[in-house]
Amino acid sequence: MRLRLVRRNNDSWLIKVAVPIASILLAILVGWIFLALSGYEAAETYRRMFYGAFGSAYNISETIVKAIPLALAGLAVSVAFRMKLWNIGAEGQLYMGAFAAGGVVMMLGDWPSILLLPLMMVAGFIAGALWGFIPGVLRALWNVNETITSLLLNYVAIAWVGFWVFGPWKDPNAMGFPLAPRFPEAAYLPVIPGSRVHIGILVAILVAIVLYIVLKYTRWGYEVRVTGESQEAARYAGMDVAKNIILVMLISGGIAGITGMIEVSGITHRLQQDISAGYGYTGIIVAWLARLNPFAILLVAFLFGALLVGGFGVQTYGIPYAIVLMLQGAVLFFLLAGEIMMKNRVIISRED
Amino acid sequence: MNWRKLGIFLLMLVFAATMVVGCGDSQDNDAQAPDQSQQEEFKVGFIYIGAPGDAGWTFAHDQGRKYLEEQIPGIKTITLENVPEGADAERSIEQLVQEGCQVVIANSFGYGDPMLEVAKRYPDVSFLHCSGLSTADNVSTFFGRIYQARYLSGMIAGAMTETNKIGYAAAYAIPEVIRGINAFTLGVQAVNPDATVQVVWSNTWVDPTLEKQAAESLIAAGCDVLAQHADTPAVQQAAQDAGILSVGYNSDMRKFAPDANLTSPVWNWGPYYVRAISGIMDGTWESEAYWGGMVDGIVDLAPIADKVPTEVKDQVAAKKQEIIQGEWDVFMGPVKAQDGTVKVPEGQVMTDDEMLSMDWFVYGVEGTIE
Could you say which of A70, A146, A256, A299 has the lowest number of CB atoms within 10 Å? Predict the structure, then answer.
């Protein structure tokens, strides 16, 4: 007996909605059985998970706080994925963006907010774009595999930030601890009062709208999509593939850089280690689950944020962190499996 | 399975699962808002950088938590483990407060900023920050002079080494770690002036793989005793596998390396927790920056292995008494810096502030501060 996956072409709306819902429910069912067998109260565990993510205004605000970097990182990598460029380097591009934004504050910290924040954002974009440019140009000119180069550059970027916070930018008042000085308040992103939800949410929505329009309605967006389908076809049609690869990596890295700027300016309020909780990597999953659709990325990031925020808090009910990870992992596992089932038909043949 | 059958199957699944979830919901209604009914009891929340299963840093704190529950009846504790020091910390601390904790204890340096943020919003809740930097009206910091125990463990390592090369797998180049390396090295040099201490940075608090790699690079460099400033027993296991000796950290790590382990400088948080929580409960507590020593019992040396000669044990015991009696302390002059210049002249003692911001190595350390 053999199992084969055959790509299906018809995508009905029913399936598009039913499969993810069924996947999540199946994941809950499996988690439920697992919790019950381990002697935990499954109903209460899931109730708390839901409550932790959506149960109060504060909890919803924290879910959004988590969703903002996930959405931006997802949007960042989705641009590259459109062209089948595997930018695994959003994490490093994020750190470089944070570094540049932090650098602007170190140098021009006494400037007013209205100038400082845009400058930080531009610096974050440029630094992230440069970090995307390196694998981009290597790929465009010498066909160097961008998956590996972008991934490895992550470690360089994280170590680079470490160098500055352990060294030249170490806060003299922090008794030797590896922290850059706290930003002046002018460098804080405005927040919705009483919460940590910052203006980054508007940035994420704006980026999604711009990406949607550019990719769908501009000539360049068309070129990106064609190149993604077939580089040969794009070349044959006279498109400058090398130029587009570099451009796409610049934009992808730039958006990731903005993510980093937003995290230091909106959340940590200083340059430090551990700025990102793996957003550059989680963004990849977000982008794929959203099938690279910019608006779907916003939605998936919100739900993913809920899964992370709600799941984490279940610990106070006595559920160990390892089981929290298992419950979260089950949701992802079934969603991704459902994704494959949605795109392919399973054919079982009995010949051999 | 054809297309239509798959669709039907999925729909059935949706219904089945909805029913399961539906049942769950109906059960919840009687158990709604479980936190409110428990408001009578005194609740203490813990934020952990790792998990109690790390057998090291967080394990030691969790032992303290259990001790607290035993000593003060009616106390309820809840914990959040593996809390990253970045964006998630503030939400985690807030959650513990919202679940009714009157005290929140956090066990890593990086929780400082978020803890101060949350503390501003809840002036009636007390916050205890381990290894922290800044206090506030309702935020205390606490830590222990583990360097005293490290000095004693260094004496044992210095007496036991044959190659005169001792390895030290260290986490981050921050004052706390540097102070520990220096104290350990001073202990080594006190009994064996020919021995040196080689430092390797792992740049992580909790990562058994990286910690083990650091240990292996030290073994390859010819070290025959390994010490560690890391949260897990990975270094101990590497020493055990290589057939050499080791000094643990955080908790008694004997069981992870029965042949290699000589002793471990250990934390004993329980008594501090009990003192702080009792004070908070009866209203006598005032915000403080606590840095207790061996005399307070917050730090100690785990039992010393049998293979260590009795003379060495006696020497260590004598030094320990001097420390406890307050007759002597580790960073009492003369102390030489790495390059041999005198850093603390004879007859002088480093102040707490100088020790807490230490960013230089003593004579006998091989390695650089990044």
Answer: A299
